[in-house]
Model the fold of this input.
Amino acid sequence: MLPQQSTLAWSIIISVLHVVAIVSTTFRLCHRLYKRQMWYDDYVVIVPLAFDCVYFVMFWKALTSKDYLRYRNNVHFFTSFMFGFVVNAIVLWFSRISLALSLARIFPRGHIARRFSLCIAVLCFVFFGTTVGLTIGLCQSSGRPWYRIDPHNCKKGPKGIPINGLVGVLADILADTVLFLAPLFVLRRVKLPARERRMILAAFSGSVLTLLAAVVFGVFWYCRVKFGSPAGKVVLRLVVAHIETTVAMIVCNLLLITMFLYRIFRRIHSVDSAPKHTPLAAHAVANPAPPPVPLLPLPSDSSNNTNTSHDSGDATSVSRTGTGTGTGTEGAIEDPKRIVCVPSEGDSGSMLISRSSVLTPIVLTQLDTAGMEWDMLDAPMTEPERSSALTLALELVPGCTTEEERGVDVDVDVDVVGKTKMQEEYESVGDSKGEVER
Done:
């Protein structure tokens, strides 16, 4: 038998959890707005943020008015069982949807891990509709308004467990298990430094806390546990419901907060461990120049003609050049901010793509938008990182491949930005592709 429950102690604990959940979500939205990295997961998390504020007020209203002790005779809509259940479900399931979308945004379009994460988000939405629909359908009493539903009158299954409660608990456990295991599966397809990989896995592994909260919720609501007094039983049921929702909200913000604190720690550590220099030398150490891109010879061609197309109204600048004349020195590129690719059509020319339009949006693994900026990587870029950047660059630039048999080398100096910006600029490049002279 459980001891007598202290309403004051539980109210303080629940209040702290709600405040942490609301503050962390607000910080996440402000950070993403400031960085201009808002995506679908950020828009979705606005829903649980708004409803959790309502849920927090409902908690204190129920405690002060003692409405949580009665269902059948409760005439207040705001503190009714059904309204609280719907608000609880919205906060809980939309937090899970936001977490699944946070995992999806790491990967580029068309990636199998991205599609898998989006399927998890859709699955969570289906579970949300199923649990709410079953509760309304199986607990509705004739002649009573929906907000005066008594949960004890719900249709019961084996061993007297309500069918809607059993389905809800199973859906909670299944969703949290998938969200816990999904990062282990999808991050196997991404090459990351071991330190960053551990950080991301640790952040997403916070779903195990929601899983534990779901198990505790099922035990206290639907298992035969001796609570001591009826009032203590109702208090514990109310408390575990609020714990589950607040933990789900905190977990969905955990990735961004973890990466934000990690960047601050890295910057402080790099400043403390840096040797003493003059102000000019210290600035050079803190802001090292990127390694220069070597001058690359263009493929040989019998034609010495140069055809150039510029669009002055757009940031995109694509030039098709033969080998007879270059931008200054024959057979070489003077501008180190350009990348040379061989078109997949197999013609003899080469494609010069300006850094401002194509190279700037390239990221190494699309992880900036998940809260981690790649300025934490030590400069200059290591050879494996440069190789990964080059591989991604060749995937993003339409119609470009490398052909070693033709003696064409490709190198790239990558600026790292967020994926959302990359997609917008890359799509604008694709839309204007038809205007480029081939």
In short: Residues 277-284, 295-380, 397-427, 429-438 have pLDDT under 50 and may be disordered. The two ends are 80 Å apart (CA to CA).
